[in-house]
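A reminder from the course coordinator: this example appears on the midterm review sheet, so study it carefully.

Given structure:
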């Protein structure tokens, strides 16, 4: 056994001597070469070798640091025929209300005590009904219009916890309309059309993915679902999206196209579809996708976030991450700090109250901070971009013409440029570079 060990050591020593003697760093061989060199010369070369090792280590470290910190670059992709995109999600907000009487019936069903107060407070109740109807279409841009109401209405005829339920019932639900479906998806695919609560009030969402967390069914849920897969299209597919509004309604509709991995937010661009008009629009997508080998990196290395990045600080109000959901997080913090409540359309934690009329009027005083999701006295999360970004740019919108049925026909233009987040330094490049610097 001992014999064997020593022979291994001998062989290692021989090998080292051999590799040192042929090493391209000439100094190393000068150190150990048979006694021809003087002591001073050897000390000089030992010094030189140490300096070079330090230099190599420093250079290696800088490569390593680069790998650790910014190993991703964005490149232009040209595999045009292999590109696959997700068809946008459409959020449709219609300014249509069912009749007054329906709203009164619902409120009275929910609030039996109302019976007495209604007689006592006739005009205040009427004001409150108007306020509720408004609520469906108001947002940060218009909450200041509640000034008058907030002076006149002193009683709550409906608890804010019930706003959502009531607004769901009294606003247009195109999924409920019978007969012809209101939406034709591209490529004859079928996707759900669901009620969704947004910063523009109660809307409908078609081809939802992340948006499901704002539908009543999942509003309180923090589970993950895989039931809502977006429609995928390639260059060979015709991608036209047709929306036809039920004939019985007369209001204007606003339609927002956004990525399935995103939710609509207050500043997004929209198409506006008036009653009994035919509108044709075209959108082109600006696309950034992330290559497979980037996905396992840390968020810091990627400099973007996936819907699920394990180990990263999650959003408090959402089980998945997106850039807009991160902005919502900031708006929620601002609303809670200044008005101690949040609007009914945000997801909430148990102790966070829903804004009543005075709460919403209070929000109007912080309009700028809320819209830009920025306030110097509040620590908002650092909102990184989504790793996969689809921005749908309005490309061409013709003037709407009169038509029997209110219709929107939208074409999504296949992009001709795609940006890919790619790895510059893989681990293999890294070891290669380190070896290169050593020799
Ligand atoms: C409501 O008022 C009507 C008459 O105005 C009365 O018959 C009814 O019992 C009242 N209901 C409640 C729950 O107080
Ligand atoms: C709204 O809520 C606040 C605090 O929760 C309360 O003081 C106020 O009276 C409420 N406003 C109305 C109109 O009920
Ligand atoms: C969410 O939970 C709260 C209380 O737990 C409940 O009052 C509310 O109705 C729920 N919302 C939905 C949409 O299910
Ligand atoms: C959203 O789509 C992705 C694929 O793009 C899928 O993995 C995920 O499960 C979907 N989310 C839901 C809620 O269905
Ligand atoms: C709406 O009215 C038009 C014209 O009367 C008709 O062609 C169309 O089928 C109607 N749409 C629905 C969904 O009933």
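Designed residues:
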């Amino acid at each position: 056994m001992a014999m064997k060990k020593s022979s291994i050591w001998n062989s290692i020593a021989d090998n080292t001597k051999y590799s040192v003697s042929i090493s391209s760093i000439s100094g190393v061989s000068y150190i150990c070469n048979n006694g021809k060199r003087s002591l001073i010369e050897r000390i000089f070369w030992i010094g030189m070798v140490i300096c070079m090792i330090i230099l190599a280590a420093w250079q290696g470290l800088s490569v390593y640091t680069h790998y650790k910190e910014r190993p991703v670059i964005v490149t232009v992709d040209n595999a045009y025929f292999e590109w696959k995109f997700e068809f946008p999600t459409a959020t449709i907000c219609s300014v249509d209300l069912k009749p007054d009487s329906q709203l009164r019936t619902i409120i009275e069903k929910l609030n039996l005590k109302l019976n007495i107060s209604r007689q006592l407070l006739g005009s205040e109740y009427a004001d409150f009904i108007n306020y509720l109807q408004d609520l469906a279409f108001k947002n940060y841009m218009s909450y200041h219009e509640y000034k008058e109401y907030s002076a006149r209405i002193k009683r709550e005829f409906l608890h804010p916890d019930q706003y959502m339920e009531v607004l769901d019932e009294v606003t247009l639900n195109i999924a409920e309309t019978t007969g012809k479906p209101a939406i034709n998806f591209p490529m004859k695919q079928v996707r759900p059309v669901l009620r969704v609560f947004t910063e523009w009030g109660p809307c409908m969402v078609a081809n939802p993915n992340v948006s499901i967390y704002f539908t009543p069914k999942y509003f309180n849920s923090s589970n993950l679902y895989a039931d809502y897969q977006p429609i995928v299209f390639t260059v060979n597919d015709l991608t036209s999206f047709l929306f036809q509004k039920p004939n019985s309604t007369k209001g204007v509709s606003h339609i927002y196209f956004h990525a399935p991995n995103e939710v609509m937010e207050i500043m997004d661009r929209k198409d506006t579809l008036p009653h009994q008009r035919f509108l044709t629009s075209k959108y082109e997508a600006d696309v950034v996708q992330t290559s497979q080998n980037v996905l396992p990196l840390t968020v810091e290395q990627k400099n973007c976030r996936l819907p699920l990045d394990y180990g990263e600080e999650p959003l408090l109000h959402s089980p998945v991450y997106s850039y807009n959901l991160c902005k919502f997080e900031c708006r929620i913090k601002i609303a809670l700090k200044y008005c101690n409540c949040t609007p009914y359309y945000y997801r909430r934690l148990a102790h966070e109250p829903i804004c009543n009329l005075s709460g919403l009027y209070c929000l109007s005083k912080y309009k700028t901070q809320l819209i830009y999701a920025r306030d110097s006295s509040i620590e908002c999360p650092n909102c990184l971009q989504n790793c996969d970004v689809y921005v749908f740019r309005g490309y061409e919108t013709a003037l709407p013409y009169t038509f029997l049925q209110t219709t929107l026909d939208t074409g999504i233009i296949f992009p001709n440029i795609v940006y890919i987040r790619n790895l510059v330094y893989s681990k293999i490049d890294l070891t290669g570079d380190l070896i290169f610097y050593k020799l």
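Residues 187 and 268 are 26 Å apart (CA to CA). Residues 39-69 form the longest helix (31 residues).
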